[in-house]
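Hi V.,

Quick status before I head out on leave. The structure for the redesign project is tokenized and pasted below; the design run finished overnight.
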């Protein structure tokens, strides 16, 4: 796991996107918009992004685990219930199995 960009210790929980359930919000990803409102010491956390998904009409969301602080905002706003919060270790174990289109350093270990 790379060093966390915003926290001295790794967060207790992390968000996991089930990309099979993610629709990309038809090009206006709510999770990305809300994560961009999360700040740590005046810095925007910006821990979730969308990545090109050739088999899907829209890009799919993926979490960058060196930035996610586990605030759960994205999970609350996802209209497709595609985001679940897990404990730190569980999230890193589960994420690869529900990530169709990975994005580095999202799954870096
Ligand atoms: S994870 Fe949810 S909120 Fe984010 S793009 Fe996918 S469907 Fe939309
Ligand atoms: S849990 Fe918070 S910091 Fe992590 S991806 Fe979701 S909104 Fe961003």
């Amino acid at each position: 796991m790379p060093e966390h960009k915003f926290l001295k210790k790794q967060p207790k929980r992390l968000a996991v996107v089930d990309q099979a359930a993610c629709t990309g919000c038809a090009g206006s990803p709510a999770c990305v918009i809300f994560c961009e409102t999360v700040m740590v010491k005046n810095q925007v956390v910006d821990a979730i992004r969308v990545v090109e998904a050739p088999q899907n009409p829209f890009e799919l969301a993926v979490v960058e685990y060196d930035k996610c602080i586990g605030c759960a905002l994205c999970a609350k706003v996802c209209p497709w219930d595609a985001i679940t919060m897990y404990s730190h270790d569980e999230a890193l174990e589960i994420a690869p199995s529900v990530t169709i289109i990975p994005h580095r350093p999202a799954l870096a270990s």
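Above is the designed sequence. The chain has one domain: 13-98.

G. will cover questions while I'm gone.

Best,
W.
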